[in-house]
Each structure stands twice: as structure tokens, then as C-alpha cells.
Design a protein that fits this description.
mainly alpha; two-stranded antiparallel ribbon; 5 helices; 41% helix
């Protein structure tokens, strides 16, 4: 029986790690430094000191991409969530509405508007 994994590994060329691979290898240290409040500028200089020269915007992009791959998958997508209907605004008929603290029918005024009876 042929071990497919070993066969495929043998087919892969030995290539040097990419810049993104180098950042990925240092992600735990980068995350810890950020959690401790270390500025990005200091992190950039530290990476340069170990031979990893990278543009600040590219570093930010790589860190964002790597964080997304490290993040556990969401349990439910927004499309999978059940739609809960928003409660519609229920209004009582005009004769049941309270106007000025008194439960009396409302009277019709100009323009078809309803107005409470004047207080007595």
C-alpha cells in the first residue's frame, strides 16, 4: 500500500520560507507584544533586527490574514440564524387610547387627525 502523504511530500520542492511564513512563525511573540502594549514600530524594528525586513502595511495585512486563519470558525453564520420577526407596533383603537390620563374617545380634527378632548 502506498503512503499518499509521504509520496506528495516527496514531490514538493524544498523552497525557502516566504515572508508570510516568517511572520506566521513569529505570530505568538507578536500577539504577546501587542497584548503588552508594544507599539507596531518597535515590533517592526525587532523583526528587522532578526533579518525580517517588511513594509508596515504589508505586516499589518499579513497579521490580519494570519489572525483570520488562526481564529476558530464561527458556530453559526448570519444566514443560518433564524429570522425573528420584529414586534409590530400595536396601537389600540382611538376609543381605547388614553388621552391626558383620561380614558375617553378621541375627537376628529382638521386633516383627519385625532385629538384628545380638552381637559375640563
Amino acid at each position: 500500500m502506498i503512503d499518499l502523504d509521504m509520496t506528495l511530500k516527496g514531490l514538493e520542492p524544498n523552497k525557502p520560507p516566504t515572508l508570510k511564513d516568517c511572520i506566521r512563525a513569529h505570530m505568538p511573540a507578536i500577539e504577546e507584544a501587542r497584548a503588552n502594549g508594544v507599539p507596531w514600530k518597535v515590533i517592526l524594528h525587532t523583526l528587522e533586527a532578526v533579518g525580517i525586513v517588511i513594509d508596515p502595511q504589508l505586516l499589518a495585512s499579513y497579521v490580519c490574514q494570519i489572525r483570520k486563519t488562526m481564529r476558530p470558525p464561527a458556530t453559526a453564520q448570519a444566514d443560518d440564524l433564524p429570522m425573528t420577526p420584529t414586534p409590530s407596533r400595536q396601537t389600540k383603537p382611538p376609543h381605547e387610547q388614553v388621552a391626558g390620563g383620561i380614558d375617553k374617545p378621541l375627537r376628529q380634527v382638521a386633516g383627519g387627525l385625532l385629538a384628545p378632548h380638552p381637559l375640563q
